[in-house]
Request: fold
Amino acid sequence: MSSEDNTPGNWGGTSSHVGTSARRLAAILSADIKDFSRLMGMDEEGTLARIKRYRREIIDPTTAEHHGRIIKTTGDGYLAIFDSPLEAVRCAIVIQQSLLGRNASLPKQAWMRFRIGVNLGDVLIDPDDIYGDGVNIAARLQGLAEPGSVYISGGVYEQIKNKLVCGYQSLGDERLKNITDPVRIYRVLPDPEAVSQAKRRNRIRATIAACVLVVAGAAGWYVLRPGTFTQAEEPRPQQQASIPPVVAPAPPPAAVRPTPAETPRASEPRAAPSPQPLPPVSPRASEPRAAPTPAPQAALPSPPPQPPVSPPAAIAPTPAPQAALPSPPPPPAPQAAPRPPAPAPMAVPAPAAPESIPPTAAPPPAPTQVAVIKPPRVPVQPGSDVFRDCDQCPEMVNLPGGTFAMGSNDDPSEKPVHQVNVASFALGRFAVTVGEWKQCVAAKACSYEPTGDDDMPASNLSWNDAQQYVGWLSNLTKKRYRLPTEAEWEYAARAGAGTKYWWGNQLVAGMANCKDCGDGSDQRRPMKVASFTPNPFGLFDMTGGIEQWVADCWHRNYDGAPRDGSSWDTQNCRERVLRGGSYRSDASYLRAASRNRYDAGVRYLAHGLRVAR
Reply:
């Protein structure tokens, strides 16, 4: 390999001039912007301003937050080094999700999407640069990556595969330019939906493969079974069986040819009007097939007794091949025209059925529900107690304590169903909004600033971000603000109901914002708070919109869960629980009992919070 690699996007290369440089194992992150030249051609000044803003607001602080160091930047990319591959991948995911949120408000042609590659390797480090194959591989992975995605090497995967709540799609071994050995490549799937889809695809592929093996095995057994030779001879008897009809007609045609069988065929269309009353009887019996046409022809040549028409019908099959050659049989088809009344009644009921179906689909009810749901925003249910501790604080609702059945049998993580006693507490009337979060940023207590209008729910937040916010509220008000426990959240979401959703067991259009929620929802982004009707506790948007962090550490099920509504924590907890589903989720995630999890230190664009105290 040469001492310098000029491949675009690569800042590495082996070097003989860095003999005094320190050598160590490090995680390397290489990133560049897809279609940078096109973006510059569209709007040079605007694109450059966006890059500087993204570096200042997203890339630089995120890299520092995950204990990384940016080695160098280029016009359309940058190179960073990390002590930990786990932190490098976390940083890459956060950057991609943050940029995804920024792109959501722009037209697709203006999207700025990074390609990121992460590798773990031995590198040589200078004060201002890094060198080695470890850098080259990271740059090659970045070049292969899809826009908006993160590709990692097999070495990184082995270090993080059980430490991040992500999916990984194996792309196989790839030979990379100027790299001696093939490199195993994985694509990181940070989106919970993508992870579940990948799992479903794997299950489908496994099922298809199993079916193919079963069919192949059955086919092999069928071919190799003892009776295969007799099966091979079966076509010959069939051919022999088909020969007799050809040979047998030979003698009959001799008897039939003397009779003017063909001349009447030519004259039959003319004589057809006279026997019209009789043919309709035969076509009715032969309507399923085209054979009805020869039947009337056979009936005409034998005038003496009409009952014996059946014997000629038996002879008719033999000339059937001859009758199939000439096209006169179609003319009798027009004789079906005298029977228009028959198809007419049959055609009438057909449209009548579809006309009756649309009313059953009942599209009008959906808009009526949306019309009823959108107006309520401020009304509070009787018995609710709404308050606000300070001008910058979110609105809170005092909830009474009670006992409820937590969990369900719909998913293993929601079992076993168990009784929980919840003490009275206060919960945010809405999810924390962008405007409320900005107060924390202005006070320099929150390091991350989400985007969006002030009345939109704050999103793209990690669990650690949520802890910064509730800590700031607690210091500001001298009251203990916190995230709700998982039991408190489900108790509040059910609002006294024992059904899947607080309004019933079926998803209803216009009640929440999700992928399957129908009219009145937006699958592209969260909607403004209070876009839907509140539950009986007076809480808005408990399901859908954004998925909400709770205090608990993730456990695979409820075995050993506390029964007093307290938070279920463990030491060195890495994964935290999310509740409620989001605009990117399907309806199953919106159930009151549904549980989800994510890495506490990783941001995701559909994650937010609601505070308790």
